[in-house]
């Protein structure tokens, strides 16, 4: 079976391929099947945004389509940046300016609790959906730590590991990250669906 990944990010393709090749599924990018769908992420939740993207690409290609949506939710910021993580502070900012905005927002704040969330949705042409959600709880640091990773990684501390995401190797991060957890759950749910045991 062929599935389209509703993303232009080859890094996400590699991650999905690693999981879905185990189920005999071939994953291709939108560009491989000649479409380029612009979807406005207007949903109020990660689940809604993942479903919006997957459904739009499924309709454009006629193939099952997979999309994900993720972000950082900080308790003392009312759950923000949340679904606005990628564009927090406006389109013109870089990753460093964005995480600095989070640090500034938490100035003097003792509650540093936060979580990364990742939601994956596969939309099928018959209207069925397979979905999975992964979360990784942690704390926002007082200053950035670590050189690796992207986005908010340098300010997201996983207390049990005593490291930020930016101080972990890709393997260390994938084993506990919101996306790693969501991908593993997604694999289980998709396998159930394909075997006809999905609820
Ligand atoms: P999207 O899921 O590709 O729409 O992007 C969500 C945004 O959330 C990214 O642009 C990052 O700013 C942030 N984000 C999601 N996952 C991670 C992560 O693992 N590390 C750091 N930032 C992340």
What attributes characterize this protein structure?
Maf protein; 5 helices; 199 residues; 7 strands; alpha/beta; seven-stranded mixed sheet; binds inosinic acid
Give a quick rundown of the structure.
The protein has 199 residues and is an alpha/beta fold.
How would you describe the overall organization of this protein?
The chain has 5 helices and 7 strands; from the N terminus they run βαβαβαββββαα. The protein has helices spanning 10-20, 46-61, 95-105, 170-176, 178-194; strands at 2-5, 26-29, 65-74, 113-123, 129-140, 156-158, 163-164. Strands 2-1-3-4-5-6-7 form a 7-stranded mixed β-sheet. The chain starts with a strand and ends in a 5-residue tail after the last helix. Residues 68-72, 85-86, 116, 149-153, 165, 177 line the site of inosinic acid (IMP).
* Structural domain tally: 1
Overall mean pLDDT score? Answer: 94
Q: Which residue ranges are poorly predicted, with pLDDT under 50 across at least 5 consecutive positions?
A: none
The strands making up the biggest β-sheet line up spatially as 2-1-3-4-5-6-7
Radius of gyration over C-alpha positions, nearest whole angstrom: 17 Å
Topology of helices and strands:
Elements lengths: L1 E4 L4 H11 L5 E4 L16 H16 L3 E10 L20 H11 L7 E11 L5 E12 L15 E3 L4 E2 L5 H7 L1 H17 L5
Parallel strand pairs: 1-2, 1-3
Antiparallel strand pairs: 3-4, 4-5, 5-6, 6-7
The structure holds inosinic acid (IMP).
